[in-house]
Amino acid sequence: MNVQIKTATLLFREDQNSHIKLDYAACEACQTKPCLNICPAQMFSLTAQGDILFSYEGCLECGACSIICSYLTWYYPRGGYGVVFREV
């Protein structure tokens, strides 16, 4: 089973507030941008201008981005929100 099929078994309860806060000024100065490669859900991408674009709505809550990047703050989503793992 590939990742796309596996993530289709997930349910996301989206909060209006992101559980990940980025320091966009620091992101702009970051040369390596490791967040683009570490996130298994590919929640980080680059705009045409080279800025980081982040979408928290499909986050798998693995915390990998918080380990690799010191320019963000990661918290678990508020109770009742975030990823819900379903049995198939």
Note the total helix count: 4
Q: Biggest sheet, in brief?
A: 2 strands, antiparallel
Q: Low-confidence segments, ≥5 residues, pLDDT <50?
A: none
How far apart the termini lie comes to: 12 Å
| CATH topology (fold) name of the domain at 19-77 | Alpha-Beta Plaits
* Percent in strands: 15-25%
Q: Which CATH C-level class of the domain at 19-77 is it? A: Alpha Beta
Structure characterization notes:
With 88 residues, the protein is α+β, with helices and mostly antiparallel strands. The chain has a domain at 19-77: Alpha-Beta Plaits (2-Layer Sandwich). It contains four helices and six strands. The strands form three sheets. The chain has a two-stranded antiparallel sheet. A hairpin with a 5-residue loop joins strand 3 (44-46) and strand 4. It is globular and about 40 Å long. The two termini are 12 Å apart.
